[in-house]
Structures are given as C-alpha cells and as structure tokens.
# Entry
Amino acid sequence: MKMTEELWLVVAIAAVWAALAAVYALVPSLGMPGYVRVWGGGAALFLLLAAVLAAAGWTARRG
Amino acid sequence: MDCISTPVATADTRPRLTARLAALPRGDASLFRLLFGAALLALALGLAGGFVTALARARALNLFGDDAYRVLTLHGVSVFFYWLYLIQAALLLVLAAAENGRGLALRPLAWLGAALMLAGFAASEWISAIGTPLLYDGSPELAVDDPRSVGVFALGYLLLSAGLAAAAVSGIATLLQPRRRGEAEAFSAIGFALFAWAGFLIVSAIAATNAFLPGLLWALGAGPFPADHGTEWHILFHNLHYLPLMATVLVWYVLTQHLTGVTSIHGARLSKIVFAAYLVFVPPTSLYHMFLEPNLSESVRVVGSLLSLFVSVPTLAAFAIIVSSLEASARARGATGLFGWMKGLPWRNPAMANMGWAVVNMLVGITFAFVLIQEKLAPMLSDTFFVPGYFHFFAVGVLTQTFLAALMVILPALGGGALWRPDLLRRMPALVTLGLLIFGTAGIAAGVMGVPRRVFDVGYGGMAPAAWPVLMALVGVGATLFAVALSVSVYGVVRTLLSRRAPATAESRRVDWTDGQRGVGAVPAWTGPLSVAVLIATMYVATIVAFEIIQSLPIVAIGGGHGH
Amino acid sequence: MSERHVTTRRGFIAALGFSAVSLYGAWAAYGAAPLPFGGHKGAAASEPDAHDGHGGGHGGHGAAEAPAEPAGHAGHGAAAGMTPEEFRSAHDAFVERFTQKDGSADPHAAVEAHAHGGHGHAGAGHDHASMGAAMVAAAEPVDVYLMAQKFAYSPDVLRLKAGQPYRFRMMADDITHGASIQLGSASRIIRLRPNVVTEQTITFTKPGAYLVYCTVYCGPAHDAMQGRIVVG
Ligand code: HEM
Ligand SMILES: [Cu+2]
# Structure
C-alpha cells in the first residue's frame, strides 16, 4: 500500500504526541498525568484518523 | 526542489467558494445559519460583557465584588468559549461541505452536535449569570460550598465539547466522501487543513473532558474534589488558543484564494506540512503557561522556555507562504515598487480589510507573546494585565476579525442576501486596530508595572503607584473605541444573516491574478522577509526592555518554586 | 522556465517560519538562555533565579511527599521541603513570637519585645533557637513566614531590613492566592497554591514601604487582599 504524504503527516503527529505522552507517563515526577491522558488520547485519535484515511483510499480503489 | 518554477500561479479550477456554497443542500444551509447565529449571539453577549468590564476597570462604572466578577465571567465564557467554538464548528462544517461539493455527510450527527453545543451555551450562560462567579476557567476551589455552580458550569463546557466532537466527526466524514467515491486521490491543501483541524477539535474536547468531568462528578457526589484543576485547565487552555489560530490561518488561505484567485506558489505539499506542524508543535510548546506554578520543577521550566521558542513556527510559515504567493503573483502581473503590489488587493471588500488588519494585529501580538515565554520574566508579567493587554490583539484583532471576514463572504452566499453596507464595514478594522493599540499599549505598560488582571479597584488604599489608575483609564478609552467599531462589524454581519433580499447581482469583484504572465517568483518578494525582520527586531527590543526592568528592581530573589 | 528568486523559494519560506527562534540571542545576552551554549550566567547576577543551594532536589511534589521531619528542623537545611502542617505551626510560632504592639511582625524584634508572655509549645521553642542563630550570622537568611487566606495575609505588615536576606516561606491556607510585591517600576509576582510551601530567599536592596497584593482571583474581595512590607 502506498504511503501518501498525507498519511505520513498524520502518523508523524500521532508519533510526536505519543512520545510526549510517554515521557510524562514514564517520568511521574513531572507531575502532570493530565498530559498523558490528553496527548495520549490525541495520539490514539490521530492513529485512528490515519487508519480512516488509508481505508478511504482503499475503498475507492476497490469500488 | 527549491528551483521549481511555475509559469503561472496555480489556479483553483473549481467554481468559486461562493458558488459552491450557494449550491449546498437547503437543510445544510439552515444548520449553518443556526450555528452562525448562535455564534454571533455569543459574540454580542461577550462584547457587552467586555465593554462593561473595561469601563469598570477604568472606574467609569462603579462595579465591585461579585457583580463585577459575574460580568467578567460572562465575558470570558461567552466570547472565549462560545463565540470561538461555535464559529469554529460552523466554519469547519461549511468549509468541509464546500470542499465536498455535495453537502454534509453524517448530517444527523452534525445536528446533534449543534444541539449539544446550544444546550451547553444555555447552561453556561445561565450559571454564569446566577451562580458563584467562577470566571471562564471555572476553578472549583472558588465554590467549595456551592457544588451546583461548579457542576452546571462544568456541564456546560462538557456539552460544548461533546457537540464539538460530534460536529468534527461529521466534518471528517464529509471531507472523506470524495475519496470514498473515488473522485479524489488526495486532499487539497485546504481539505487537509480542515481534516487536521477537525482532529484537533476532538483533542480539545478530550482536554475539556479531562479538565471538567472531575468537577461535574464532584458536584454530583460521585467523585473527589478536583484539587488539580489548575494543571488540567492549563492543558485545555493551551489547546484552546492554538486551535483558533490554526482556524484563522486556514480562513486566510480560503479567503485569499477566494478574493484573489491565488493559491500557494509553493505547492500544496508545503501547506500541508505547515498545517500538520500546528499539531506537531502544540503539545511541546505548552509549558509556558505554568512558569509560576510552585510545583513545576526547574528542569521542566527551562525546557519549557526553550520549546516555547517554536510556538510561532507554523503561523509565521503560513504567513510567509501567503504573502509571498500574493506578492509573486502580483509582480508577475506587472506590480512594481516595494509595496506597490498591495494596492492591487481588493481592499474595498470588507472581508479583505478585516483579513489585512488581522495580519497586522498578529505581528503585534506575536511580539508580546514572545516576552511571556521567557521563564525568567514570568515573575514580572504572569497574572498581570500584560496578559489581557497583549492577547486581545489575538482574540479581537486576529481571531474575531478573521472569522467576521469569513462570515462576510459566506453569509451572502448561503442566504442569498447582500452584505450590509460594505463601504462602512471596510473602515472598521482600522478603527478596531487603533483601539486595540491604545488598549494594548496602556494595558501592557500597566502589566509591566504590576497591575493585576481581574482586579477592579487598583488603588489599594493609596499604596499603589499613581500611574496605575491612569493607565487603566486609558485601557478604558481604547476598549471603548474597539468595542464600538467591532460592534458595527458585528451588526453588519447580523443584518446580513437576517436579510432576505434578492441575491446581489454583481458579486464583489475580485482581483484576477490567476493568469499572470510567465515567471511567477522570478523577481524578489521582500514583503514577507521584511515584516519578519521588523517583527524579530521589535521582539528583541521588547524582551530587552523587560529584562532591563526586572534587573533594575530593588530586590534579589532566589528560588522561584518551593525548596526542592 | 525561469529560476525563482531566493525570496520565493520553499526553503526560504520554511526558514522564515523558524525565524522567531532567533530570540534565543536576546535571552543569551541576559544569561537566561536555557542551553549551555551562548551566554553566561554571570550576566544575570541580579536575577539569580536558579535554585542554587537546593542541589539534589527530589522531583515531584516534594512538599507533600517529604517525610515528616520533627518540627523545628525544617529550615536551614539544603532540602527545605516542609509539610503544610509544619508550615502552619512554624507560621503560628512566628506570628506569636514577633508581633509588635502595632500589629506588624518584626523578625528582628528581641525576645523581650514580644507582646505576650510565655511561649506555647516545645516545637515553637526549638524554632526560635534556629531563628536566633540566623540573626547572629548576618549572611544567613532570616526566616519569614507569610500565609495567604481569603482575603488577607498573615502577618499583614512585615518589618524588614535592607540588605538582609530573608528566607520567605509562603503558603496559601485555603485556595490559590498570589503574594506579589510592588517594587516601584514593576512587581515580583508570586503564585501560592493551597498547601504547597513556596520558598524564596529575598533581599530588599532599598528601604521603603512595599505593597503586597493578591494576583490570583480568589473571590469577591480579591481586590481588597493586600499587605505591606516595610523595609527600614
Ligand atoms: C468589546 C470588545 C472587548 C472588550 C472591551 C474587552 C475587554 C476586556 C477586559 C478589560 C478584560 C480584562 C479583565 C481583567 O483581567 O480584569 C478582558 C478579559 C478577557 N477578554 Fe476581552 N474584551 C473584548 C473582546 C474580547 C473578545 C472578542 C475575546 C475573545 C475572542 C476576549 C477574550 C477575553 C478573555 C479570554 C479575557 C480573560 C477573562 C478572565 O481573565 O477571566 N475579549 N476583556
Ligand atoms: Cu487572594
């Protein structure tokens, strides 16, 4: 499957957010668990959007 | 890749935005008009609240205690939450439907979203009017003995976020429709920006839930007291002022294309990267809101300051793309002189005037924002009137004027009426900017001197410097000017929304730079780099002045946070 | 097809986006640059905000998690993590010990000047000893306690001396407040979270009467929340 620029931009967003959420999750002394929930949730959302984006192209090519 | 040159600016081959809007299904248009109307109502309420607040702070109105804070709460809640989010939801849906060309997908979800947001609007306004004044951040500790206020206040924002998320999902589905049908392989730059923005709206809904659900649960007796509201609020708040900035730049793209026919001469891919950059840079740049928190460790403080330097990257890049594309296209058509190309822009159109002045306000606002991101200056500026003094350049000058500009184009196309008195409306943005400059200069000076925000009598029984009340009176003067001018713009837009006149025969003329001669970009385009150079120079001056002042204070203080 | 001028090329546009990062130069000139390169801390001698002397800090909410030390110990050590309870009793002792006839608190007042007679409990007595010791060595900071609550400070007037470092220990008792000091051309803003002990070592370099005021909205009488530091 072709990785379009749009797809990898969305994946890049998810990756940066996930990395940030991971830092706050793994260093609890930073004292901001809210960051883990919000940016972690955001990372999951953008991964989902990437999947939706890929699926839409795929549907089109099949149909 | 840097030497690619295009013989002509890439033109949008589709019908103009207004034509696509006029062709939208009836039902969609009603939804959009409902959302636009609600957003404008929130703006009108908020403007009234802001005006009264400013007069009270200037001591032109004798308002104190709970009454004063109730008005301030109504201002912040109406304008920062309901105006900005209702208008964003509406713009997302309209622009997505126009991209799609066939109206909304998942239409019932969009209506559900609208209903939820309106319910939230009603709840928030009601509790702000009668409850314990919580200001727009709704901190539960202010009403430990009044769980009803905390609960209803939180409920309002939670409904707003749920509605926002529902609308965003409908927007995303709408944007994906052409692709599912196999009609499009990729998004346009604007389509991609809308897609990313919709995702960001949902993330903000997550942040709002994270911040306000604990308050609601506590009020219902179903959870512990939300002691950490401050931190969770910062996360939401950072999202909330990044998000409308991204929406603003997106609207600039849309309007530039509509008013001049010019799209980016740098290709859609660079624009897509810039819009994605908004999302990439949001989380890492958020720490500067917390510099005064006693619990923040020194290392986080330092890293936060450093990362915040990147806060303007996407905005300045988008600014450079738009300005260089316009300038290069105009020059390809024969414009000469350093700024001569600007004369070709359709300034007689109020939408253009609002957008143009919004750009000026953005440059002023960024200058002062960068004084605030330096953690060593936070102990002088945070929590002072410096903050409202500078951010109204953004809130009013940039965001509000840009969204009004969008409405001036969209509403006539949707409703078929003509824009109310364009010759009057196009003069307002300069007045708004002048008022903001008075408000901002006096407010920033007051803030530097230590005038606190959210205080109505700054006399402190004669202990405060004599300059404080004088500066606050000037704030009142500036506020009056921009409040009046902005109200005229809002009135014009509301009249346009309500008008049912026959469609205007002659659509606003647009400059036509699409069919330029050969060699777009062959000659220099200095406006972008020059503006940025001026911006950096003023940022240096502002930062240096701030450092000089803080170093001259008759105090030596060690240790910002608590002793660890 | 003609070449593009540099100002209309993509790389140039992208670089413009990053241009504001160059403000780092101004920070470096004032020793406020967070990275090692560029700028020396020496330039910022009058704003030494760094946590010198608090080396080996434990991250996180030190105040809340610090092991309960015997009252009176908290103070002159390097790790000054203080629990809210310790703060409250030290504050009460401070007020009781140093309140003058006019209601102001003067940490330099001799023991005899004390308005009331005997001292309450042992813990407070212990504290007095360490405060006394601090006064002997001039370079040693003198402890000062400031509690913020709706809508006042305790003590609300402090009498201090110019040139003498004070270790301000501050805490909000009920909800979040500020304790900002107006210093003429600008203020020094301090935000106080409830039950978090904030510590700053502060030296006033000029005599004068300085306004202390609340900078965090805390309720209807927020405007009226003020105190005074009189530096002689
Ligand atoms: C008629 C136009 C407006 C006037 C006269 C006005 C005036 C003011 C004043 C004087 C304050 C300072 C309150 C204080 O800290 O003591 C304030 C706060 C604020 N304004 Fe405005 N404003 C106007 C429009 C807007 C708009 C359009 C927005 C946003 C889109 C906005 C957002 C805010 C926010 C978020 C605050 C902070 C509220 C708080 O601290 O609780 N204002 N406004
Ligand atoms: Cu207070």
In short: Chain C is about 20% helix and 20% strand. The radius of gyration of chain C is 23 Å. Chain C has a mean pLDDT of 74.
